[in-house]
């Protein structure tokens, strides 16, 4: 009796597996079928490394407006590039979305992108925020700024990223770990502007001034300032925006007690971290893909994006949210974002050498 | 042990071997792909990696793993012993509650504790605003090596606890009662009888803990600890050098294979085959009022820290963010999570049983090594394994292009790698160790006498399996299945990259928020993951109880 029961339940389990995987692969096929060139005007397949609710909301809005379904596969940027590389011509990807100019350039160098040809997009996005060969265009940007304790530091004590290595900040500087893309990208930009040697000295100087070993995320640096662990921190603007709108009254308090300083205004400008979108080399729904880029970089899309994430829009026609308006105009680093990709490896090596954890 | 087996059985090739051979081969491909990374010529970055990362990072990993294994073995074994051998207030509740931390993914726990103890967290806020204390931040800093060991130990000790407890409950009675009758002191009984007797179970649990720590990236990244995994990702994401990342993973894998062989070799002569299988359960001794009170208090503190406090904190955050985060899509995510986890866990257990059976019937170097290799998927970071899986499936798809075209999918199509089959396959490779260890421990317990008797009486290997062995190892199969299910529900990196279009699970949703430091928003998906885990644990307890009466 008993063993029959066991055999039966094992068979049932196997049958369930077959049915489940079968169903799932069918539903998968439905998508990929309609993604094919024969029928395909109703879908666009996105490989995205941005995981924000606002992105999904934009895709929904796009779907409502155009009737084109947006399918997505997510992952970290490097994984997705690796996947597209391996899939080659058969890849189902139409678009690649990610944070960081360096990775966008890596995708381009890996041969998984192709030029975007659209007058509308060229009008939406200024040339300096597009790849030289239009393999990708920026969607939004965040400024990597210096934040400071309002009660202990005055803005006139601050000037540049470089000045954070001064003696007066000994034991007072906070930053997150060097595994973080934003830090790698900032260092890559400094390599481009100041050269490798000087940047290594800079990184060593920052490490020498650390208030504690790097830990946590950007928000944790802000909290550490208010808690008195350190006085100044390097972090992204949009986290400050999110903290000001947090449901946690204590987080709002923290955000209110820190000041934002846009560094290098007299010199090279504040570092920007860009999010961007690229057209996949073997896109099978090219027309739909271009429509989605046009929508996301258009005035409406850009306003939706900046209001949802507190990133800076790339389309100058887009109206800024009040908070961002309040921060005012500032000078941005004027560099070729492709260079960040070129220098990213050096930046990682340099951070290792400086023992930036 | 070979001499115990009749030669007829030892040398016979049978269906089990063939099936498990094929299964092993398929499941081994991704791991082999990663191991071959060691044979390729190192890239120009390798010198830098060796100088600045390899040894420091390996050392930190060793510290972290060693510390966690030590803590989980101590906690898991002593709690298992306490709840099986003694009776004290709340024992029944506690022996169940000690399993619950398994439902919480360690990285969620790390974010929760990190946030809770931070300057704006509930603990410090209470002290500052209500009590008016100003506190030194250093005492609240959990984001350190010690903090990581603390988090891993709190949330992984149930592996050791569960496997050891299952073993002690069913199989230690005769030894312990004899020792008690002979007047052994409880402490010396524990060290001289319980520990040596249950070393197989403890090692099984501890190796799962070690794997989990070695492949973790979420906790160490958030806490800023330079583990070996961090080196792998720095190489891949910072230097864009996939080949060196694969090479580092290959190194990690061969280190673990070495550990396996060493462990096996050290235990080779120490096998306890228990004389009776269904022995009467151990009679619990009642603790006195004071010691009983202490036992209950310690137990309560551990459960509070490892389950109820973080869950309560998540619940508060869930209420805060309910309006922003909750929508109907969660029902689909729950369905997806449940469906794919149950399917993969069931298939995985079938394979685990086949593999364990084959490695037992046909004891040889090759079966031993390949059964261990099958477990390798558990030891390396999921993201790297996913590259191995992708490599296998995409090349398979390209080879099958002609077949797909004939079947009407169209030219140049990816079918397998765009379907759930790839994800299910990846889960199986990743967590086979969980199922295999449990089944292997089950076989370990029943020894060989029943199977030998059955086979000598004329049953084949298969009939012996269904009529004799399976009823005996049913509990172990169930344990393995539940553990695997729990793991798959929590799994992240594989799910993220290998799922088909639009296939969201609860874990990917939680990650979406947590990766962007929106820990409050991550509370709702995290709580549902935990709830599913708790239900699985309850089912397990209920079936276990029904089975033992």
TrEMBL record, chain A:
Fe cation binds at residues 51, 238-239. Pfam families: SBP_bac_8. Gene3D superfamilies: Periplasmic binding protein-like II (3.40.190.10). SUPFAM superfamilies: Periplasmic binding protein-like II. InterPro entries: Ferric-bd (IPR026045), SBP (IPR006059). Keywords: Ion transport, Iron, Iron transport, Metal-binding, Signal, Transport. GO terms for cellular component: outer membrane-bounded periplasmic space. GO terms for biological process: iron ion transport. Residues 1-24 form the signal peptide. One of its GO terms (molecular function) is metal ion binding. Belongs to the bacterial solute-binding protein 1 family. This is Iron ABC transporter substrate-binding protein. The lineage of its organism: Bacteria, Bacillati, Bacillota, Bacilli, Bacillales.
From TrEMBL, chain B:
PROSITE patterns: ABC_TM1. Keywords: Cell inner membrane, Cell membrane, Membrane, Transmembrane, Transmembrane helix, Transport. One of its GO terms (cellular component) is plasma membrane. Residues 58-261, 334-540 form the ABC transmembrane type-1 domain. GO terms for biological process: transmembrane transport. Pfam families: BPD_transp_1 (PF00528). The keyword Transmembrane applies. Signal peptide: none annotated. It is a multi-pass membrane protein. InterPro entries: MetI-like (IPR000515), MetI-like_sf (IPR035906). This is Iron ABC transporter permease. It comes from Paenibacillus pinisoli.
